[in-house]
Design goal:
The complex is a heterodimer of chains A (about 260) and B (about 425).
Chain A: H1 2-24, H2 46-58, H3 84-92, E1 95-98, E2 107-110, H4 124-130, H5 149-158, E3 174-175, E4 183-184, H6 205-220, H7 224-257
Antiparallel strand pairs in A: 1-2, 3-4
Helix pairs in contact in A: 2-6, 5-6
Chain B: H1 10-18, H2 21-30, E1 32-34, H3 43-64, H4 72-81, H5 86-114, H6 122-144, H7 149-160, H8 169-177, H9 184-213, E2 232-234, H10 235-260, H11 290-298, H12 302-314, H13 319-322, H14 334-354, H15 360-387, E3 393-394, E4 402-403, H16 409-417
Antiparallel strand pairs in B: 1-2, 3-4
Classes of the chains: A mainly alpha (about 260), B mainly alpha (about 425).
Chain lengths: ~260, ~425
């Protein structure tokens, strides 16, 4: 049995890439969006992040956890930048289990900004059981965990279609051309007007998909804006220093080169 | 070393008589270096920088990282989100591994082109290959630490290679794991070894440089030079300033990855927490191991593949004796020069097919590439060295006089042979 397992693993190891290639045959290329956070100076669109958080909170959060984020992150620079009062209100709207108290009992209390995002299920098994055996992945780093990143997430959100003739789907399985194998267990949860945006933006499926993807991109890389800003400073510094060192080098070597 | 050196101050002299550190510093400063070294010779300094960067960032990461199967992934996210500049330190460390390998490959190919591995520098070369081997081990174990899907399955695949050893293979694999599969004990020991290996590398680097300072640097012309002479310059300031300039160019590339594309060299699956129940569709090593991966997969037999893969590395240890030519620099070796570039193309080809499915044309290419790799070292090098008519070699660096009968030992020997 052990030998067989090892053989199987080796076979998987050796031929793993074909599977990918074969599957990729049916998978559509993700739609390319000109995200504001792309490029060397890319920044997140603040209002899109806030709207995206609303979509996450009202739609995604009922199944998907984001366990590596804290409510305080929502008020930090480079993110949705909710005000301190808003962050406190958002955190307080969640029930957090805490304890044990002096009596040794666990209890619940309103959330604080320092709390991690509350997960919808107590554990992965419970999440899988409630969702037909496929657990909704944690979304903290989802954008970094998928080939194609933000474009892929957006494409899947808008990629639901009726299955083409000849494709039959089991119950609880949906057709999505951007998924590997074109099958997805997550239903199409977005419909026009599903949420009511506070800033008056029209909540089309496309708009909500873009907003929530922007929010997820920030959640995966909350350091992105600081990284870009620091990067540009570092580059300018390195280039200036290089010029100085280059000139010094020429001067020092001129002593030798003149002899040659 | 600079035997003639005496410190100016009394205290300096007192100390130096007891521990000649000042003599060492003086030696390093005055060390006569060929003045015609090109930028391919700056990668030694760049590699030292890479090693120190990895050690410093690694020590800081280890202060925040938790080596436990249930906590490792989360602790990496903690570093990325909550530790001050944790994202910067981690991205420098993870991209630093790739930059380290980029530099070491350039360094090795430079040695191959200019014949730096030949007499009297064989020991420098052998220590260098040992360093390269340890680098691969350190990089592999480091990639396991974030405990993502690629970490887990990469570790599973690579440790399973040892099960190909007849009779004791399975026991060895279990022993390596510390369990009956890759699990928490495996992660713990990999973390321990990942912390240890860089210091072993550091020790070997000291030996590598020590061994270098005995015969002195090779140079693009590949001839022996008198030291010191008008063919040499003192290491400081001439080589230091040039090394710093090259290092800055390298750092600009490095910073480009760290700040603007920190994840392009990694695999997206490694941001999925390790799951022993789900095998990723696509298990590939990091880019710098792909040529060896292609060699491994080119053999239909597991044990054969493993043997061939390790041979591909170990053959490098005997390279100084496989190359029969006494002329070092490929500049004066018209035939070898062509084979050098064919080898470079071959290794790029192997790297490419290593990332592709092992089937159809890719498999054929992998096999051709593998056969050629071994042919280059076992057949081409010995024969070319024997039959090649090399070009005339200058007498010295300062006087680029081409001569058929150079009076310097090396050129003369070659001449007689032809």
């Amino acid at each position: 049995m052990k030998k067989f397992k090892i053989l199987l693993l080796t076979a998987l190891f050796l031929f793993s890439i074909n599977l990918k290639l074969n599957a990729a045959g049916e998978q559509a290329e993700p739609i390319k969006i000109d995200w504001s956070f792309k490029g060397l100076t890319g920044k997140f669109d603040r209002s899109s992040l806030q709207r995206g958080f609303q979509v996450y909170k009202e739609v995604c959060a009922s199944c998907h956890s984001m366990q590596y984020l804290s409510y305080r992150n929502l008020g930090e620079p480079g993110g949705p930048e909710f005000s301190e009062a808003e962050v406190k209100a958002i955190a307080a709207s969640f029930e957090v289990s805490d304890g044990p108290d002096a009596q040794g009992e666990m209890f619940t209390r309103p959330g604080r900004p320092s709390d991690k995002f509350v997960s919808p299920y107590p554990n992965v098994k419970a999440a899988a059981a409630a969702n037909g055996g496929a657990y909704p992945p944690d979304m903290s780093v989802l954008v970094k965990a998928r080939k194609g990143g933000a474009n892929y997430i957006y494409s899947v959100l808008v990629g639901y279609e009726d299955p083409p003739a000849g494709v039959t789907l089991d119950d609880g399985v949906y057709y999505n051309k951007y998924m590997i194998g074109n099958k997805i267990k997550m239903p199409n949860n977005l419909s026009d007007g599903l949420v009511e945006y506070a800033d008056g933006t029209s909540a089309t499926v496309d708009q909500m998909a873009k907003d929530v993807t922007t929010f997820l991109a920030w959640a995966a890389e909350p350091e992105l804006e600081e990284r870009h800003k620091t990067g540009i400073k570092v580059m300018i510094y390195l280039i200036l220093l290089s010029i100085l060192v280059y000139l010094s080098m020429k001067k020092i070597w001129s002593r030798i080169d003149s002899e040659m | 070393m600079s035997e003639n050196y005496t410190p100016d101050s009394k205290v300096g002299k007192w100390f130096n008589d007891r521990l000649p550190l000042l003599s060492l510093a003086s030696h390093l400063k005055d060390y006569p270096t060929p003045k015609n070294l090109n930028y391919w010779w700056t990668f030694g300094g760049i590699l030292t920088f890479c090693l120190i960067t990895q050690i410093v960032t690694g020590i800081v990461l280890a202060m925040h990282y938790v080596a436990h199967a249930d906590l490792a992934f989360g602790s990496v996210e903690h570093i990325m989100r909550d530790v001050n500049y944790g994202w910067l330190i981690r991205y420098i460390h993870s991209n630093g591994a790739s930059m380290f390998f980029l530099a070491v490959y350039i360094h090795i190919f430079r040695s191959l082109f200019y014949g730096s591995y030949k007499s009297p520098r064989e020991v420098i070369w052998i220590i260098g290959i040992l360093i390269y081997l340890l680098m691969m081990a350190a990089a592999f174990m480091g990639y396991v630490l974030p405990w993502g899907q690629m970490s887990f399955w990469g570790a599973t695949v690579i440790t399973n290679l040892f099960s190909a050893i007849p009779l004791v293979g399975e026991s060895i694999t279990t022993w390596l794991w510390g369990a009956y599969s890759v699990d928490n004990p495996t992660l713990n020991r990999f973390f321990s070894l990942h912390y240890l290996i860089p210091f072993l590398i550091l020790g070997l680097v000291v030996l590598h440089i020590w061994a270098l300072h005995v015969p002195g640097n090779n140079n693009p012309v590949g001839i022996d030079i008198k030291k010191p002479s008008k063919d040499t310059v003192p290491f400081h300031p001439y080589i230091t300033i040039k090394d710093i300039f090259a290092l800055l160019m390298f750092t600009i590339l490095f910073a480009g990855f760290v700040f603007f594309a920190p994840n392009v060299l990694g695999h997206s699956d490694n941001y999925i927490p390790a799951n022993p129940m789900v095998t990723p569709a696509h298990i590939v090593p990091e880019w710098y191991l792909l040529p060896f991966y292609a060699i491994l997969r080119s053999v239909p037999d597991k044990l054969g593949g493993v043997i061939l893969m390790f041979s591909a590395i170990f053959i490098l240890f005997i390279l100084p004796w496989l190359d029969t030519s006494k002329v070092r620099s490929a500049v004066y070796r018209p035939i070898y020069k062509q084979f050098f570039w064919i080898l470079v193309i071959d290794i790029f080809l192997l790297g490419y097919v290593g990332a592709m499915p092992a089937e159809g044309l890719y498999l054929v290419l992998a096999r051709v590439g593998t056969i050629y790799y071994f042919l280059h070292f076992l057949v081409v090098l010995p024969l070319v060295g024997y039959f090649e008519k090399t070009d005339p070699i200058p007498i010295s660096i300062s006087e680029p006089v081409m001569t058929g009968s150079a009076n310097l030992g090396l050129a003369k020997k070659t001449d007689e042979k032809i």
